Amino acid sequence: MNSNEYTRLVAQAKSLMQGEKDIIANMANLSALIFNNMENINWAGFYLYKEEQLVLGPFQGQPACIRIPMGRGVCGTAASERQTMMVADVHEFAGHIACDAASNSEIVVPLIVNDKLLGVLDIDSPLKNRFNDSDKQGVESLAATLIEALS
């Protein structure tokens, strides 16, 4: 997607979440919005930071791993390092957790509120090298929209 498409998606996300503070409701709608508007993805959703691990939250796609230890896989690494991770080929990522064998690339954005880890936004694709810098900026903007709605 290009920046104009992400701008439109962010505007839709803001409209969906306007006035709503419930985290589960907002995550559910945002995962559906992403899943239905981004091309060449097969999973979009959230993991929440609970009990010092990531626990599956609202998502769209195939059933997923329920718990991910901090520092494991792309999600656990992004969460522990508190930085966005874009992985061109998840099969070459050390410690990759294969929840869906059809996933080949992934982008994960940590959700940080008041310096506390809330969880991560995770998007998978069946294509290798699916995500680029435009996607990184766009997905980070979508994550920021969620954080803003919760504040």
Helix-strand blueprint:
Blueprint: H1 3-17, H2 23-37, E1 43-50, E2 53-61, E3 67-69, H3 73-81, E4 85-87, E5 105-113, E6 116-125, H4 133-150
Antiparallel strand pairs: 1-2, 1-6, 2-3, 4-5, 5-6
Which features would summarize this protein structure in a list?
single chain; 151 residues; alpha+beta; Beta-Lactamase; six-stranded antiparallel beta sheet; 4 helices; 28% strand
Element string (H = helix, E = strand): HHEEEHEEEH
What structural category characterises the helix and strand content?
A: alpha+beta
Strand content: 25-35%
The helix tally amounts to 4
- Overall shape: globular
Q: Radius of gyration over alpha carbons?
A: 14 Å
Portion of residues in helices?
25-40%
CATH architecture: 2-Layer Sandwich
Provide mean pLDDT, rounded: 94
CATH class: Alpha Beta
Supply the CATH superfamily name.
GAF domain
Number of domains: 1
Poorly predicted residue ranges:
none
* Distance linking N and C termini: 27 Å
Largest sheet: 6 strands, antiparallel
CATH topology assignment: Beta-Lactamase
Q: What is the number of strand segments?
A: 6
Strand order of the largest sheet: 3-2-1-6-5-4
Task: Give the oligomeric state.
Answer: single chain
